[in-house]
Amino acid sequence: MEHGSSIEINTEWDIVAARQLGRNEAKETGFGTVDQARITTAISELARNIYLYAGKGVIKIEPVRAGQRAGLIITASDEGPGITDLQKVMEDGFTTSGGLGAGMPGVKRLMDDFRVETEVGIGTTITATKWLH
Amino acid sequence: MPQETGKQYKQMLKSFLRTQGEEDLYLGQQFSRNFIEKKIAPEDVISLHKTSIEELIEDLPPEVSISFDFLIEMMIHYGLALKEHQSLIRKQEAIQMEMDIAVRMQNTLLQTATPEVQGLDIGWISKPAKQMNGDYVYFLNETSSQVCLAVADIIGKGMSAAMHMSMVKFGMDSLRYEKRSPSEVLSFINKMIEKSISDSMFVSMFYGKYDTDTATFRYASAGHEPALFYCAAEKEFKLLESKGLLLGVQEEAKYEERTVKLEVNDFVVIMTDGVSETRTENGFIEMDFIENLLCQVKSENAQAMVDYLFNELSRMQDYQLHDDFTLVILKKTK
Fold first, then answer.
1. Residue B52 structural domain
2. What are the start-end ranges of the E strands in B128-201?
3. Is residue B27 located within the same domain as residue B65?
4. Is A93 within 8 Å of B88 when comparing Cβ atoms?
5. Which of A38, A92, A109 sits opposite B88 (nearest CB)?
6. Does residue B106 sit within a domain?
7. GO molecular function of the protein, one example (chain A) (predicted)?
8. For B15, B39, B82, B209, which has the most beta carbons within 10 A of its beta carbon?
């Protein structure tokens, strides 16, 4: 069966659903407990950002295979306000000091690859990949 | 995580479970430095503990085993906080390096040579409270018989103060060959600062010019601390005050100019508020306190007097300067 699917984020409860989906996918891909927790935390942070700043959006979780490597790609997309100062948002201490959680640098650290595409007034798409080591 | 580390951890845990001794705890603590050095995250340590305990205790209740999954989840943010902390420390080291370069550059840009003048002994000191000095001393040997000096204090401290001070210095340098009077120099610098420095930045400055032929000291002040003049014949101190706004407040500000004549053993003391507003446990010191200190060393040379005052006043602040400290003494020797 081809697994991988997406969850719409509208309420705070959808964050829990996205976490659950992510954990299941991570387990199925073969990640250990610690990496499962890391992937789930990253999903949690991304989903929370959607919920807090864009109101609604989608979290997509899909397995990926590149040559010998297997992994999991998380895509968080919204049509929210976009990020004005990406450099600032990616700075350590910018969001955490405000008590908003791990923030974008946290997600970047939890995952292996991390990419942001954002346009003010259009929305934001964040793609983060974790590889099985 | 390296397999070897995992094996060692399990071995140590096994030994501890048997003895529950302090020695094992001590070894464990030493071992934890290994984890930190190898940048092993706290959640990985819990995971290692989980695997080890599952292998060591055959009939471990499943709830206990599962509970470690909860603990792993709890530790993820701690791990992130640790990584963030480490990255901020690296960033701080980089900033410190930049800062050191800036301090060296400031020192090079703003260095001034003490002029040699017939019959006038000059001593001075300028010490920053933090890394960058917001006070500034500038000497200019205009002719063989005339020496100018400026003592300035940027309202504000640190990096931005120091950068603005460089501008003031180059402003004064540009007047180098023009033989302007103290009030003209202040007017010029005032216009320059008014144009180019942000509204919240002000500079106080005392500018003086000593003429060896006439033994007169002409001075003007832009909102600066009054200078002290010691008259040896009368054994008395007088304040050298002159009216003028801080630099950078008003473009057309005028600066009053005054003159004092020096006799042998008379001296002039120019300072910044880091000296006159020395704070001690009992509050600010009074001007007569400074006068008393000066009296005790009035027969010494100018540099010895300056050093004595600095040592006494910094000792009173437990050697922690609250503000940049600048002091200049001009003493007529013959």
1. 3-92
2. 135-143, 146-155
3. yes
4. yes
5. A92
6. no
7. kinase activity
8. B209
Using the Cβ of A110 and the Cβ atoms of chain B, whether some distance falls under 8 Å is answered with yes
Residue-wise pLDDT tens digits, B122-163: 999 998 887 777 888 999 887 888 899 999 988 766 677 777
| Residue B299 to residue B81: CA distance in whole angstroms | 61
Shortest distance between the Cα of A33 and any Cα of chain B, in A, equals: 7
User: Residue with structure tokens 């997406």?
Assistant: A6
The letter for the amino acid at B189 is I
Whole-number Cα distances in Å, A122 to A79, A80, A81, A82: 6, 7, 6, 6
DSSP state of B247: B
- Mutate which of B80, B82, B87, B88 to test chain A, going by most A C-beta atoms within 10 A? B80
Q: Which of A53, A43, A129, A40 is nearest to A89 (CA)?
A: A53
CATH of the domain at A123: 3.30.565.10
Residues of A in contact with B88 (CB under 8 A): 92-93
Residue to mutate among A16, A31, A34, A114, with most B CBs inside 10 A, is: A34
- Helices B22-37, B3-19: axis angle to 10 degrees equals 160
Q: Does B195 reside within a domain?
A: yes
Indicate the number of domains in chain A.
1
pLDDT computed for residue B264 by the predictor: 93
Residue B97 lies in a domain: no
Each of the 133 residues of chain A gets a pLDDT tens digit; together they read: 445 699 999 999 999 999 999 999 999 999 999 999 999 999 999 999 999 999 999 999 999 998 889 999 999 999 999 988 888 888 876 654 444 456 888 999 999 999 999 999 999 999 999 999 8
pLDDT tens digit sequence for B10-33: 999 999 999 999 999 999 999 999
